[in-house]
Amino acid sequence: MEEKYLKKFIEILPALNEVMQEDINVVVIDARKMTVMAYAPGKLDRKVKVGDPIEKTENHDFVIRNKKQMLSKIPAKYFGVPAKGLLTPVLDENGEVCAIVNVTQSIERETKIEESTSVLFSSMNQLNAGIEEVASSSQHLSTFIKEIDEFGSQTEEKINDIDNIILDIKNISKHSNLLALNASIEAARAGDAGRGFSVVAKEMGKLSNLSKESAERVAGSLSEIKSSIEFIGEKIKIVSLSSENQAAAAEEMAASTDEIVSISKQLTEFAKVETMEK
Fold first, then answer.
1. What CATH number was assigned to the domain covering residues 113-271?
2. What is the mean pLDDT of residues 137-158?
3. Which part of the chain is the Methyl-accepting transducer domain (predicted)?
């Protein structure tokens, strides 16, 4: 700001709060004497009056030395609420800083928004991490269930192979039984000479019947096992489908929360009160 505008600026100071609709106060400081030239208090009252001395700070030195504005954040302990202050140099006709306009504005609302968005960002990060973990677990579960389903199918195939073996045993038993019957007939025809052979034929018949009964029991047990495996397989397919759907849903949720996290991060950045670093 040039010095020629300073007088007019001081004249309109009392109307600034009304016009700007903001909670601000303005102090015009004589940069050479470091005293108050003009003061327009708002809710953020500095408790100063024209002519009062102002303690020179590093911020004042920065503005005077560099001849440019400086924006800083003011802790709540000074005004009861957080605020920001903008120091603007006023240059005389020689380009030297003759005065400093100090505008202070409450940023209580902005600070609350910043804190809220920071909490939101942190919460969304935690939520996103949890959902990604669920998605990963769901994917592992889906893979595990598929492996179990494949194992069940392989077991069912092996049971079918055993069924074929049992069928062969039944056929062997049937033929053995016929051979035993034929041997008994021939032994009867041979009379006393075939008596010993008749005993062997009877034992062969008993063994054949025992093999048949054992094969039938094993076949019955395998049939029950096969039915159980088929039942389990059907349930596994249902669980597998649900698991796949869950994994897909978790991945979609993870993608959505990624977007929300990105948005909340942007909100956090937007809500931050900017300051000019020295």
1. 1.10.287.950
2. 76
3. 128-278
Question: Domain map of the chain by residue range?
Answer: 3-106, 113-271
Pairing mode, strands 83-91 and 97-106: antiparallel
Gyration radius from the chain CA atoms: 48
Q: Which of 274, 273, 275, 2 is nearest to 113 (CA)?
A: 273
- The torsion region of residue 95 among left (phi > 0), alpha (psi -120 to 50) and beta comes to left
Query: Does residue 126 or residue 98 have the better pLDDT?
Result: 98
The pairing of beta strand 83-91 with beta strand 24-30 = unpaired
Rounded to the nearest 5°, which phi and psi values hold at 70? -140, 125
**At residue 254, what are phi and psi to the nearest 5 degrees?**
-60, -40
- Among 50, 62, 8, 53, CA closest to 34: 53
Query: How far from the centroid of its chain's Cα atoms is residue 273's Cα?
Result: 28
Compare 78 and 57 and report the one with higher pLDDT.
57
Banded model confidence at residue 63, pLDDT cuts 50, 70, 90? very high
Q: 3-state DSSP call for residue 97?
A: strand
Cα distance between residue 35 and residue 46, in whole Å: 14
CA distance 132 to 235: 27
Where b means 16+ CB within 10 Å and e means fewer, 252-264 reads ebbeebeeebeeb
Helix (H, G, I), strand (E, B) or coil at 51: coil
Q: Is the pLDDT of residue 183 over 80?
A: no
3-106 in CATH: which number? Answer: 3.30.450.20
CA distance 67 to 63: 5
Q: What is the pLDDT of residue 278?
A: 43
In the structure, what pLDDT confidence band is assigned to residue 16 with cuts at 50, 70 and 90?
Answer: confident
